Automatic annotation (TrEMBL):
Domain of life: Eukaryota
Biological source species: Choristoneura fumiferana
Name by which UniProt lists this protein: Uncharacterized protein
Length: 195
């Protein structure tokens, strides 16, 4: 009897996690087989999006991208993180993969984790751009998140290099995101630490 009750509870929890996908992101329960282990709640709506790249793990198919997401998650956990650091990953297949997600504080941008989400493109974008499918998926995802009040209406978007000592998201991707709505120029970055 208890086994049936417990199994029913687990199935309900997995369905709740899967149904919390607000903007078509692939839930972690689907690509990793379990929910995120991070516990600290992220206050919503979020006012800052940090665009990153993983350097490792360009992928083109659903199977490849799920494998890369799992490899990143495993690497982070071996490094002592509670779970994957990024909030979301974007694959070359045009899918967005849930990491820490909307409900939990990630570990992606020192000093800004508790007030931002990281959208990290899988691959190295120092010299080339992500696939057109990945770029469109990210734009659609951000528009949906804003419409669903997960992001503030006037949210700001920055490249990781604007707030950390890093090359991320790569020169090519950094140049691309300067043309996106909500992009914030370097001169105004100081205000991010005070909002």
């Amino acid at each position: 009897m208890w086994a049936i009750v417990i199994a029913s509870f687990v199935v309900k929890m997995l369905l709740v996690e899967a149904n919390e996908s607000k903007c078509g992101e692939v839930p972690m329960t689907q690509w990793a087989g379990q929910a995120c282990l991070r516990q600290t709640p992220l206050p919503l709506p979020v006012g800052l999006v940090v665009i990153q790249h993983t350097v490792y793990g360009a992928c083109a198919s659903d199977e490849e991208c799920a494998a890369v997401a799992n490899a990143i998650r495993n690497y982070h956990m071996k490094q002592g993180y509670d779970d994957i650091g990024q909030s979301f990953l974007v694959g070359g297949n045009g899918e967005v993969y849930e990491g820490a997600g909307w409900r939990r504080v990630g570990a992606h941008t020192r000093g800004l984790n508790n007030r931002s989400v990281a959208l990290s493109f899988m691959g190295d974008f120092r010299e080339t751009l992500p696939t057109p499918q990945a770029l469109q998926a990210a734009k659609d995802f951000l528009a949906c998140a804003s419409e669903n009040k997960l992001l503030t209406e006037d949210y700001r978007l920055v490249g990781h290099r604007q707030v950390s000592q890093t090359e991320s998201p790569g020169a090519a991707l950094q140049k691309e995101i300067t043309t996106w709505p909500h992009w914030l120029e370097m001169a105004n970055i100081v205000s991010l630490f005070n909002y």
